Amino acid sequence: MRKSLKSLPEMHAKVDSLYLHKTEFVGLSKHVQELQESVDFTSKQYDTVLDQVKANQQQMSKGEEETDASKKIVFEQAMNIQRLQEDQNESEQYSRRANLEIHGLPFNQDEDLKDDLSKLPVALNLPNISPFYALAIHRLPSKRDTVPAVLVRFASLSVKESWSAARGKLRHLHQSGALPKLFFIDNLTKLTRDLFWYARTAANDKGYLFAWVKTGNWMIKRMKTHHFSE
């Protein structure tokens, strides 16, 4: 009995210790629960952000697909426009095949172009300029301080080609004083003319000495003894 009574304080101490540990355990459990709630909240936030990122990626992917489709449409439209421009230029150039530009003819305020050009057929041994051979003769628009060229629209391509073939005599006739310094060239569209200047520059860079246009086609020659290239 005495032993039991002696052990009572020790038992009370153990009970107090257990109660203290219980309190600590309850506090720890509460802290763990709070941590779990915080983890759950953070996890939900992460899931929300992840869903938003996925939605943004899908939207971006859709936007990229729409952009690619738009680029394809724009490219196809650009190609169609280019083909139409090329077809239009080809048709316009074809309509000019019987036209000839004469450069270097002095300008007079009250000039009569048919009369001024009347010496050319005789000097070049060509058909006379008449309504039968030439449908129209007029000056072309030009920049200020530049003598405008004369455009002759021949009735047929063969007559125009006979004039073009005789342009090699112009230099000799100028040197002899029979004619002013004249040049015969094809009547080109702006696009064809720009392409010709580009082609001529490229031909010169590759060593070709001569480049010109004949009935809308580009001609080049490296040396006088070489054949023509078209």
From TrEMBL:
- What is the superkingdom listed in this entry's lineage? Eukaryota
Name of protein: Uncharacterized protein
User: Can you name the source organism?
Assistant: Haemaphysalis longicornis (Bush tick)
